[in-house]
Amino acid sequence: xxxxxxxxxxxxxxxxxxxxxxxxxxxxxxxxxxxxxxxxxxxxxxxxxxxxxxxxxxxxxxxxxxxxxxxxxxxxxxxxxxxxxxxxxxxxxxxxxxxxxxxxxxxxxxxxxxxxxxxxxxxxxxxxxxxxxxxxxxxxxxxxxxxxxxxxxxxxxxxxxxxxxxxxxxxxxxxxxxxxxxxxxxxxxxxxxxxxxxxxxxxxxxxxxxxxxxxxxxxxxxxxxxxxxxxxxxxxxxxxxxxxxxxxxxxxxxxxxxxxxxxxxxxxxxxxxxx
Length: 275
Description:
Layout: E1 7-12, E2 15-20, H1 31-44, E3 52-57, H2 80-86, H3 89-98, E4 103-108, E5 111-113, H4 115-120, E6 125-129, E7 133-135, H5 149-157, H6 159-168, E8 172-173, H7 174-180, E9 185-187, H8 192-204, H9 208-222, H10 226-230, H11 233-240, H12 244-255
Helix pairs in contact: 1-3, 5-6
């Protein structure tokens, strides 16, 4: 496999380890990193020597989510069609990882934020340390949650908890994520990769054709309505990007203050009559 700028890949006896590494321990999902992750997954599709793929992040975090400072997303001079094409990279990346026949494991330490959760739930299994932090900040930042993540999350933790995670945008710690079913394995801090390696070793001993066929069958059943329920979320994401709420949310984020949204209601002065 070719060398990547932001990925380090080790392959040994049926198990591959893909390490995201942007050199800062945060591994924000830039356009270039997402393009590499997509290309990496596509190259694994035809690799019959790999039975299991572990995805992890270098340093303190799995990934802090989309890189809000990436100039590729901030040009402002592109056409609407060009902008739409640029923003395909997120859902394309997630789809590439979900469609792999090999078993995929997201090994999570530290922060797993926004688009990083979308990537993680595109994998078959997720193992995390007990103090890992999961958060979906999209709605507080004036956007909808996209990358077709909502139906994948919903299938793991159910609609009520999905709404809580997606709409409130609050921290979900590793132990609670395990309790909810967002992750399937939990361990002490610093042990997530070892935990994932142990699971990969078990899978690697199983008959690969039966494993691949079973995964494909289960995904076909579980994911049959995912596309129909989320195929417009990329365009919805682009639409929310033009709203005043989005502009105010980003401004407030960088100014480290609470956002003042247009539709904000003063709950303290709101009675049952709506006055």
